Amino acid sequence: MPLLKLVPDDTNFDFMRWRNVALILSIIATVASLALVAARGLNLGVDFVGGQMIRATFTQKAPIEDIRNRIASLELGDASIQEFGNQNTLSIRLPLPPGDEEAANQAGSRVRGVIEQKYPGTKFAVDTVSGKVSNELYRSGSLAIALAMLGIAIYIWFRFEWQFGVGALVTLFHDVSMTMGFFSLTQLEFNLNVVAAILTIVGYSLNDTVVIYDRIRENLRKYRKMEIVPLLNLSLNETLSRTIVTSLSIMLALLALLLIGPEVIFGLTIAILLGIFIGTYSSIYISSPILVWLKVNSESFVPKNTGGAERVKSQNESF
């Protein structure tokens, strides 16, 4: 029985034909994502801003307006109330009240009490994070992402050449910016789970980029007289089957988690799903075309004294 092939072995797509169009679209999307984050901000979770997160699951459709009015009457500060996962569950985020942990617990008890009074049978889950802890988590999460991207760029630089390191860094910056722009646009909660998802995206994008870069380097040595654009097309087509099969299998698993998985990992799942899609695109239309714009060709990495050494060797052998 023949094996199923999603991508034929002899594909010959002209990916580089659309590199300039892809560049323009990517620049527009990246700038728009950064502008969204700057203007609208991220819906930072309790992990990063401190406060209380109360998830209330009702036995019926959540009466969001009534709950908003009841909590406002408690005068606990500016509360953020929205549906969480389904129509029966509300996410209620409260700022930390003045005082110690006991004051925060009392505020949470007052919220639960005013809801249970009108809607008995409601189930609650409460998370409390202090301001000091949230600041530490925010700094640690930002530092982890920045160091991961920098370390990867340095690794690519040493393994290949500086042009490849620049390409990897730009690709990772593109992927992370697009993901954060998505969270700013949708105002989905941005918490530690999403930071973990972004680090996962960085790792996957690196893996895909390294596979393609390794084939490009191999072909640069193998086809010395081939122009860089046809060589990139050849390399991308040779790795296309691996790229499509890997990305598709991961995306199918993530799609199942997104549809039937637990609500607590919804943000993590959708971030990785989006990141895999963007990472697959960027490994083809960002990391590879950058080598063209950086003037990489078959002679770029040949030692300058190679020709002279070969001539000396030839002269010695003639004697």
Q: What features would you describe in this structure?
A:
The protein has 319 residues and is of the alpha+beta class. It has two domains: 15-42 and 134-293, Multidrug efflux transporter AcrB transmembrane fold, CATH 1.20.1640; 51-129, Alpha-Beta Plaits. It has eleven helices and six strands. The strands form two sheets. It has a four-stranded antiparallel sheet. The longest helix is centred in the last third of the chain and has 33 residues, at 228-260. The protein is elongated and about 80 Å long.
Number of strands: 6
Query: Helix/strand-derived class?
Result: alpha+beta
Amino-to-carboxy terminus distance? 61 Å
**The top level CATH class name of the largest domain:** Mainly Alpha
Spatial order of the strands forming the largest sheet: 3-4-2-5
What is the molecular shape? elongated
CATH topology of the largest domain: Multidrug efflux transporter AcrB transmembrane fold
Beta strand %: 5-15%
Number of helices: 11
Taking the sheet with the most strands, its summary is: 4 strands, antiparallel
Question: What is the fourth-level CATH superfamily of the largest domain?
Answer: Multidrug efflux transporter AcrB transmembrane domain
| Overall structural domain count | 2
- Helix and strand sequence: HEHEHEEHEHHEHHHHH
Give the C-alpha Rg.
Answer: 26 Å
Q: Low-confidence parts, pLDDT < 50 over ≥5 residues?
A: 306-319
